[in-house]
Amino acid sequence: MGIRFRHCLRYAAAALSVTALLTVTACGTEESTPADSNEQQTTTEQTSPITVVASINQWGALAAELGGEDVTVTSIVNTTNVDAHDFEPKTSDVAKLSKAQIVVANGAGYDSWATKSLTSSSNIVSAASVMGAVEGDNPHLWFSKDARVGMAEALTDAFSKTLPSKKAEFKKRLKLWKQSEQSMEDWADDFMKSHTDLAYAATEPVAYYLMADLGFKDSTPKGYAQSTASGGEAAPADLQSFQKIIEDRDIDLLINNTQAANEATNLITGTAGRSEVPVVKVSEQMPSDSKTLDAWINQIINSIVDAVDPDYGCDTDQDDESADGTDSDNADKTADGDDESGSSSDAGDTGSTDEKSNDSASTESDSSDGNDDKAYQGITYIRECKSSSTNTSTDENGGDSTSDDGSGTGAGKDDAQSSGEDQPDPGK
């Protein structure tokens, strides 16, 4: 009987131990709940600017403008002294691309070096993907108004997903950017309505999309165009055909890619000079003195208009109104009162949009809050007459505003290294 009693006591003690152990285990489980996990995730949500690396400064400038103080942008190719087609990135360039939260690329074979070392999980915003372009298509997509709008929307979407807390700010910047882009398209469309049947030829198809948007017919001899598109040399017969259309004044102007100079292009531009056919210089990379992508493109459009009809839109009243290259009334309308729509970045932030462009028909509306970190309120692009263009841009570049977009003699001042080196965007 005593033995049985002792056994019962042991069983009871064991049962109590198991119960206590289960109770402790249950308590431990309660310490980790979904609600607690969500709280931890909330506290670690990103608040710092998004790290963006662009292959070329054209798209880097757009990313910086749309991202404002909420992004830091580095452009790998940021000088007109480098041809992105043949660029070979350094180890440090590849490292920047691999560490970026968002990589901005052109695509269509133009900058394949930028994405070939990235993984499938990399967050890439590609202009070619946005437009459905493939290798073999004309890769100079930044000159297409459709590509610019498409990329602006794609970048804003990528920024909003990466930094959801700033989604409203990104949307406001996109809205204001679209208004600015539209102002440039509007005055260019007005020019097109009164100037039809215009033709051009090009030493290299850098501005193909831009000229198509402006309604120009491409009269470049087919043999010459095919040779340059494939990277080959033009045949003597093709050069003779090119010289003939220039000498016969079959074109209204010649587009010359300043980053693709050779004996053939020198021959063609020389023929244009002797035949008094205007030559408009266009670079592929955005010059370092251009503050935004659209500011640069607006300057090129003004140069094209100057070459065809220098008096267009330059009556006395309009010239006085646009002495600084902007329409202040329209600029006020463009800014719809969203003061916080996208603050410009601090001195160390790449891609500040509060700097006034002195090389194109653009300026920012003044912010009335008096803060150093002024809110980006949009830009209104208009026709900039030759006299004001000379005052605001060609003094620095030393070139003729009717034929030089800043990529000619001024391009020599772009002494940046061939890769980003953490230099401020855009184009520096």
Automatic annotation (TrEMBL):
GO terms of biological process kind: metal ion transport
GO cellular component, one term: cell envelope
Region (Disordered): 308-428
Biased composition (Low complexity): 342-351, 392-406
SUPFAM superfamilies xrefs: Helical backbone' metal receptor
Signal peptide: 1-26
Family annotation (PROSITE patterns): PROKAR_LIPOPROTEIN
Annotated keywords: Metal-binding, Signal, Transport
Name assigned to this protein: ABC transporter substrate-binding protein
